[in-house]
Each structure stands twice: as structure tokens, then as C-alpha cells.
């Protein structure tokens, strides 16, 4: 064996930027296997042309890509690796935007308070019959779900044709962000005295919503898009708590005016939270 082309693990570590501990770990995982292992000493030796691969592994791990996925990417073609890196870049940019918006929102709340930017009012919501498509998901899948859900809902409504009694809205049964999944329902309200939907596809239902009191605020333009829209939810939640009301159901995001493009200046949505008067019954803990 020509050892002139081989580097012992210590020198390979210095050349690649991977620690000796990491190199041993990647050997055990089958991600980066040494060319030669001395049968007596157990010393590992790597070829010099393995250095670029090791540096690629280092970069992929720095991006937070799991070891198993790194192994798959190294075994795939260059196109798949490039696509994975582009996806990582988009995800990093999205995380940065979420963090930037969260910091601005927090600074605004600390210096001005949510109530300074979101005026909360109370209105009476009428009883409604709604066409519903639901799914349990987190924020990463929300936009794609809503696009497909409303395409299906409007297709079913058009066969009626149904008479709409108000704007489309979404009901969130819990927190829907990058860390939490919840049931999300895309809703279309329609006139119960007119045509009714038939031959509903699997997963689509008709539901009756009772009359309810709603605490509401509106957001426009970029403030109506995630993550800035979270400030509107917080403002309504703060108002409900401060005024002693009870949260009485899933919060709604009502499309008062929607262009179909997030951040469009003409977009206007309403955050509407069902509320009840407080009771003397002890809270469920």
C-alpha cells in the first residue's frame, strides 16, 4: 500500500477541519470511512482526496442537516445536493425573517404596547352554516394547505352554486407556528336557505356555528402576514384577559380583503376571537 497518499487521522483532522472525535463518529456511522485501518494499532488513515468530502460533511453539519441525511446526500448526485442546499438557504432566510419580525414585534410591545397598534372592538357574530376543510399542521404547511383547501371548497360551492353570506375565514384550534401543530379549518359561510353542497369529498364537512360575541382587531398589508400577524392575535388575547372575558372557542382569521399575495398592501384581515362573560366556576387545571 502506498501510504504517501494517506493521511493519519490527526493530519486529516487538521486538513479537513473536522475533529478527531467527529471523524471517528462519522466512521462508525458510515458517513466518512477511512481508507485504511492499521490492524495492530487501530490507527485510521484517509486518502488525501477525501479532504473535500470531509469539508462538505462539515458544512452540511454546520447547516444542521442530520447525519443520516448527510449520508444520503453524499450518496446522491450533485443535483440533489444542490437542491438540498437551496432548500436549507430558503429555510434559513425564513427563520431569519421570523426572528427579525419577532424582535421588532417585541420591541414595539415593550415601547408602545400591543393596544397602541391594534384597536380591539366587540361585535356580534351571527349563526352561520359553513363548508369546512380541516387539517392538523404547523405553520410550515399552512399556506400550501389553505391554497388547496380553498380551491376544493370553491369548486364544491360552485357546483351548487352556493350563496355566500360572508367572507372566507380560518379557525385555529390552538397555536400554529414553527414549533406547534394544531387543527386548522378553512371555512366558507353560505346561506342555509339556498342551495346546499352535495357529494362532498372526504375530509370536507358542513358545520353549524352558533351566534357568538367576538373580540376583534384588523391588520393590513405586511402586518397581515406571518409572523407580524401574531401581534394582532396577542392584542386581542391581551384585551380579553384584561377585560375579564372567557375565551369561548377557536380564534378566526377573516379575509376582509385578500389579493392572494402575502404582504400585498391591499390585504386586510380580521382577527376575531369568540368570548363569553366570566363565570364563577373554577378553571380546569
UniProtKB/TrEMBL annotation:
Gene3D superfamilies: 1.10.1660.10, Regulatory factor, effector binding domain
Keywords assigned by UniProt, alphabetized: Coiled coil, DNA-binding
PANTHER family: MERR FAMILY REGULATORY PROTEIN, REDOX-CYCLING DRUG-SENSING TRANSCRIPTIONAL ACTIVATOR SOXR
Transmembrane segments: none
Coiled coil segments of this chain: 75-102
UniProt protein name: MerR family transcriptional regulator
Boundaries of every HTH merR-type domain copy: 6-76
Stored SUPFAM superfamilies: Probable bacterial effector-binding domain, Putative DNA-binding domain
Lineage start: Bacteria, Bacillati, Actinomycetota, Actinomycetes, Kitasatosporales
InterPro entries: DNA-bd_dom_put_sf, MerR-type_HTH_dom, MerR_fam, Reg_factor_effector_dom_sf
Organism: Streptomyces katrae
